[in-house]
Amino acid sequence: MSFLEFFFIKRKEFISLSFFVLTLASSLPVLARVTIEDKNSILLEEIKSLIVDGKLIKAQKYLDQALLDRPRNLNLLFLRADIAMRMGDYNTAITSYRNMLDQDPNLVRVRLELARAYFMKKDDDQAEYHFRLVLGGKPSPAVVRNIEAFLEVMEKRRRWRLEMALSIAPDSNVNVAPTIRTVEIFGLPFDLSDDARRKSGIGLFGNVGGDYNLPITEKINIHTRAYLQRSQYKDSRYNDTYVLVSSGPRFLFNKSELAVLATGSRRWYGEKPYTETYGVRFEGGYVIRPRFSLSGGFEIAHLAYQSVEGRSGRYASADVVATYGLSSRSFVRSLASFYIEDTELSIQKQKQWRFGVGHYYEFSGGLTSYIQPEISFSRYDEKNIFFMKKRKDNLFRIRTTLTKRDWQVWGFAPQVTYTYSKNLSNINIYDYQRHQFQFGVTRQF
Fold this sequence. Notes:
Elements: H1 3-52, H2 56-69, H3 74-86, H4 90-103, H5 108-121, H6 124-135, H7 141-157, E1 160-171, E2 182-185, E3 188-191, E4 201-215, E5 220-232, E6 240-252, E7 256-269, E8 272-289, E9 292-305, E10 313-327, E11 330-343, E12 350-362, E13 367-384, E14 389-404, E15 413-425, E16 432-444
Antiparallel strand pairs: 1-4, 1-16, 2-3, 4-5, 5-6, 6-7, 7-8, 8-9, 9-10, 10-11, 11-12, 12-13, 13-14, 14-15, 15-16
Helix pairs in contact: 1-2, 1-3, 2-3, 3-4, 4-5, 5-6, 6-7
């Protein structure tokens, strides 16, 4: 064999060997990944087997070790929540389900399990919230029936609910006043005082409200509601306090309810009595389809303006709200209302129409948003003798609320609200523009 023949033969063997080595080297990451995935699958199956066999503590030990390396792994978090539910540790289960939804709010099965965890914990407000979001995701008829059964149980066992909020509230127009400097009265120009023009300020805003149901029979209870709202500023002339109380029988039907309530309210403005009302309200709700519901009411009451002579009288109002689930993370809401005020002071007699639409959405990371634009039209019956015309107001308002539901301290979650209002009137002293912010916390019990 010549040297050249030997060289070419060995060269072919060397090239073949080199190709094999390079191919093996390039496949090592793939082989390693397959090996790791195989180990993960084996570990998951082993943990599932331990759970089925009832060896929850051992399964939990394996799971805790696995979560150290992969704390956001959805399969591991779901198994952790499953073990916690079986052990009655609903808080741990809720935390795991919430972590999963923070990564992907579209996980309908996880949201359903989260609702069930809240149900078992008897946190019915949160349970109902998530059950209704699931209904918006077009679940199967079997799932719908199960959810409706849960909702019925909660409706029967629920005795009370409480919600509260506290915030710092910068406001560009605390006295709801115009920016103009002069106004015409009887056709003559008059200068507005500084107190009659727009003033800004930073205050504290808080509210607390609650409901209590006293059962009479399986389908009848006495429903009592109380609500307190307070805005407080450095200048006490703009402090505003409102209190509402109502109570009466509430009748429960298959997919609807009806309540007849005696109502009463008081308002203080500038730390002085402002208005007082008492009357009756009829309200109810009806579930048309699992993801579509209606609610509304009609109210008639006596109205007394304690600081304005001759303005007392009565009012009537009607309102309707329609809610439609778009998906397991969002819904849309439309509202309409009518208000009529008949007072002794004829120039204050008015009618008001209000229309709005709102959209709720849950983002990844535990952030939720609600935005609601609305418009209202106010028309006064009599000509204002000072301005020689009937007053007509058109008010546009938009409110946006952001809540970080997964950041909680003692159950309070941070919330930011911004409200923009602009009123256009044919009498310019009633024109105004307003920017309101609220930086605070909120909680439901």
